[in-house]
């Protein structure tokens, strides 16, 4: 786990009927190694002539059935150390080519993995003919709630540190906490949407998505005291 703390620039100092206070926002980032990886492979029927390097689309005749493509993919998964019980499948419909042409049926595999090395082996050895997309679907960690707590605490400590040196610079002393507000979607990584849509036939293309990055923001109001 990598934990980084920082702060936003917004600072409020005020004198009200409630007394003098300063309000600051602290931020943090927690980087987590996942222990459950969902990898999505979508296969689709194709015509053998697509890969002969000479046929035009109107000459495509030899359709490779989904069952043959699936057999090859499952063989690759077994060789990569993916057990059958870690594979869920879903039929996702047909693809229409042109008027008068055949439907091309597709299927999606949702693999539950524990190691990115398995993905590397799949990408290196799978026959990409018949592979429509391969992407990381979701990253999880069984201790996520603990990481959420650590991220929020780090953001609070960043807020306290900033408030303390600002108040001390004015010859005052930082008092107790008057209010704490969690900002936005704490714990949700802004990278995750992009990550879940990564298509890949190259292991290097998802190297940047091998960890979960959660961001936290906490606004805290502190009382200002005389020294």
UniProtKB/TrEMBL annotation:
<dbReference type="Pfam" id="PF04402">
    <property type="entry name" value="SIMPL"/>
</dbReference>
<dbReference type="InterPro" id="IPR052022">
    <property type="entry name" value="26kDa_periplasmic_antigen"/>
</dbReference>
<dbReference type="InterPro" id="IPR007497">
    <property type="entry name" value="SIMPL/DUF541"/>
</dbReference>
<dbReference type="GO" id="GO:0006974">
    <property type="term" value="P:DNA damage response"/>
</dbReference>
<protein>
    <recommendedName>
        <fullName>Oxidative stress defense protein</fullName>
    </recommendedName>
</protein>
């Amino acid at each position: 786990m990598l934990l980084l703390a920082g702060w936003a620039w917004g600072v409020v100092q005020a004198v009200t009927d409630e007394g003098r206070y300063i309000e600051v926002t602290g931020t943090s980032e927690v980087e987590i190694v996942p222990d459950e990886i969902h990898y999505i492979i979508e296969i689709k029927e194709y015509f053998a002539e697509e890969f002969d390097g000479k046929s035009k689309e109107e000459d495509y005749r030899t359709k490779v059935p989904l069952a043959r493509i699936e057999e090859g993919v499952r063989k690759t998964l077994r060789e990569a150390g993916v057990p059958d019980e870690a594979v869920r499948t879903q039929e996702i419909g047909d693809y229409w080519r042109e008027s008068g042409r055949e439907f091309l049926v597709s299927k999606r595999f949702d693999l539950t993995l524990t190691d990115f090395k398995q993905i590397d082996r799949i990408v290196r050895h799978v026959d990409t003919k018949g592979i429509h997309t391969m992407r990381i679907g979701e990253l999880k960690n069984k201790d996520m709630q603990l990481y959420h707590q650590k991220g929020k605490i780090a953001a609070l400590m960043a807020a306290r540190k900033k408030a303390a040196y600002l108040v001390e610079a004015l010859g005052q002393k930082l008092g107790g906490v008057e209010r704490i507000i969690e900002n936005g979607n704490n714990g949700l990584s802004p990278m995750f949407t992009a990550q879940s849509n990564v298509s890949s036939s190259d292991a290097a293309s998802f190297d940047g998505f091998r960890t979960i990055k959660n961001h936290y923001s906490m606004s805290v109001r502190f009382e200002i005291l005389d020294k």
